[in-house]
Amino acid sequence: MKISSLRKHAFTSSAITQSDIRRVTVIGSGQMGSGIAQVAAMKQHEVTLVDVNQEALERGKGYMSKSLKRVAKKKFPEDAKAQNQFVEKALGHVTLSTNASKSVSNAGLVVEAVVENLKAKQNIFVKLAMEAPDNAILASNTSSLPIAKIAAPLTLSQRKRFIGLHFFNPVPQMKLVEVVRSDEVDQKTVDDAVAFVKSIGKTPAVCKDTPGFIVNRLLLPYMMESIRLLESGVASARDIDTAMKLGAGYPMGPFELCDYVGLDTIKFIVDGWYKEGAGLKGNKLFESSKKLDELVQAGSLGVKSGKGFYDY
Ligand SMILES: NC(=O)c1ccc[n+]([C@@H]2O[C@H](COP(=O)([O-])OP(=O)(O)OC[C@H]3O[C@@H](n4cnc5c(N)ncnc54)[C@H](O)[C@@H]3O)[C@@H](O)[C@H]2O)c1
């Protein structure tokens, strides 16, 4: 379904400009992709949101509309007309498409947010890097895969334009974007990615391409140590949560956070790092625990399954 029409631009292989980067193609219209499309559209970027079928696109549009209505209500309380205008204006900057090749043909920035699967991401970039302008920035929103591994099948010139843009969930609310640089990316790409993040009202934190980047690298050991504290009988989950909220000023306790993230996701990440994480392999901080294994085995995955460390 077309919300606004695509503008065609002639591209050369010269350096990309900030006005080129205002044309953004987001691949994957799930939770993250639709959030990224929404925040870029709210800042008047021309966004094309791509997914494999119309149903997925409509679901993504639904996420955007719902979230935009919430933002509009806060921005213009008591003014229904202004609220509607705000929502329509943002959606007017988004084109929905199932044709990825056509959608990247005039993009300045391509952001991939499909399933967390290395092969799937590599296949997308191998195809789209050739179809996008040869100065476009290529970015992945992966949360756990090495950026250099995703970019490995690309040419050197494409890898120099390849970067991680790690948004946080829910995208419209979370202010941080980790800008992840591999050893091969060129400085101009990093600078342009940082400028893009600022242009959509987010705050960038640049880091190297290492497991967990910054936030998850620090959060995962914290979560695992909390579980070990519980297992060793030092305190209850409720008391540990209360202690960290009131004593350290955290908005959520570690067990509330674990349940929100999903216990299967946590186990998947620490198992991967413990087994083969660069620089983390065999590190006891990332060893799974009996309690975590039991909960995952029982299907108690946290908020999404109705039960985790707490009942929902
Ligand atoms: N959910 C989170 O909290 C979170 C946070 C940060 C980063 N991430 C990362 O963002 C990415 C997306 O996560 P999500 O939670 O939005 O997933 P999701 O399952 O909600 O959405 C993925 C979307 O990608 C689409 N898709 C799959 N293959 C495609 C293809 N070849 N072309 C176009 N679309 C395709 C699917 O149809 C689906 O709509 C993952 O890499 C994930 O690790 C997720």
Task: State the main characteristics.
312 residues, alpha/beta, Rossmann fold, N-(1-d-carboxylethyl)-l-norvaline Dehydrogenase, domain 2, 13 helices, globular, disordered N terminus, binds nicotinamide-adenine-dinucleotide
Topology, element by element:
Blueprint: E1 23-27, H1 31-42, E2 46-50, H2 54-75, H3 80-91, E3 94-97, H4 100-104, E4 109-112, H5 118-131, E5 137-140, H6 147-151, H7 156-159, E6 162-167, E7 176-181, H8 187-199, E8 203-208, H9 215-231, H10 237-248, H11 254-261, H12 263-276, H13 290-297
Parallel strand pairs: 1-2, 1-4, 2-3, 4-5, 5-6, 7-8
Antiparallel strand pairs: 6-7
The structure holds nicotinamide-adenine-dinucleotide.
Nicotinamide-adenine-dinucleotide (NAD) is lined by residues 27-33, 50-52, 56, 113-116, 120, 124, 141-143, 167, 169.
Molecular structure report:
The protein is globular and about 60 Å long. The protein has 2 domains: 20-208, NAD(P)-binding Rossmann-like Domain (Rossmann fold); 218-305, N-(1-d-carboxylethyl)-l-norvaline Dehydrogenase, domain 2 (Orthogonal Bundle), CATH 1.10.1040. Mean pLDDT is 94; it is low at 1-12. Helix 1 (31-42) crosses helix 2 (54-75), helix 2 (54-75) packs antiparallel against helix 3 and helix 9 (215-231) crosses helix 11. The two termini are 37 Å apart. Strands 3-2-1-4-5-6-7-8 form an 8-stranded mixed sheet, sandwiched between helices. The chain has helices spanning 31-42, 54-75, 80-91, 100-104, 118-131, 147-151, 156-159, 187-199, 215-231, 237-248, 254-261, 263-276, 290-297; strands at residues 23-27, 46-50, 94-97, 109-112, 137-140, 162-167, 176-181, 203-208. It has 312 residues and is an alpha/beta fold. The protein binds nicotinamide-adenine-dinucleotide. Residues 27-33, 50-52, 56, 113-116, 120, 124, 141-143, 167, 169 line the site of nicotinamide-adenine-dinucleotide. The site of nicotinamide-adenine-dinucleotide has 22 residues, from helix 1 and helix 5.
